[in-house]
Specification:
Elements (H helix, E strand, L loop, with lengths): L1 E10 L8 H20 L3 E7 L6 E4 L3 E4 L7 E11 L2 H8 L10 E6 L8
Antiparallel strand pairs: 1-5, 1-6, 2-5, 3-4
Length: 118
C-alpha cells in the first residue's frame, strides 16, 4: 500500500453565493465521502482545512507576500492522505470528492519516503 495526498483546490469566485441548504448538502456529502474512505480503511490521515486569510508566502531575499499568492485565482482548501494500492485507486477516490460539485478540483500526489526511488 502506498500513501497519496489528495489536495483540495477551489477557485476564488465572488459570484458563487451558495444557499444555506447548498452549504449543508456539501458538508453532509463531504462527511459521507470521508466516512466511506475511513470505513474502507483507506484514510491514512484525515488532514486539515487550510486558512486563506492567515497565510504568507516566504521567498528568498527576505521577500514576504501576504497570502498564498499575490493574486488568488485558485487556493488550496485542505488535504487528506489516503493509503491505497496505486495512483489509479487514489484518483478513483478523488473523483468522488464533493468539492468537484462546487467548481473545485483535487490534485493527487504520491507521498515519497526515503526508500522510494521514484
Amino acid at each position: 500500500m502506498k500513501e497519496f495526498v489528495l489536495i483540495f483546490r477551489n477557485s476564488a469566485n465572488p459570484e458563487l453565493k451558495p444557499s444555506k441548504e447548498q452549504i449543508q448538502k456539501v458538508q453532509t456529502d463531504w462527511m459521507n465521502w470521508m466516512g466511506s474512505i475511513a470505513a474502507h480503511e483507506k484514510l491514512a490521515n484525515q488532514g486539515n482545512r487550510l486558512s486563506i486569510s492567515v497565510a504568507k508566502t516566504v521567498k528568498s531575499n527576505d521577500v514576504i507576500i501576504d497570502g498564498p499568492f499575490t493574486e488568488i485565482k485558485e487556493f488550496i482548501n485542505g488535504y487528506i492522505v489516503v493509503k491505497v494500492g496505486n495512483v489509479e485507486e487514489a484518483v478513483s477516490i478523488a473523483k468522488e470528492c464533493p468539492i468537484l460539485m462546487i467548481g473545485g478540483n483535487v490534485e493527487v500526489r504520491a507521498v515519497v519516503n526515503p526508500n522510494d526511488n521514484e
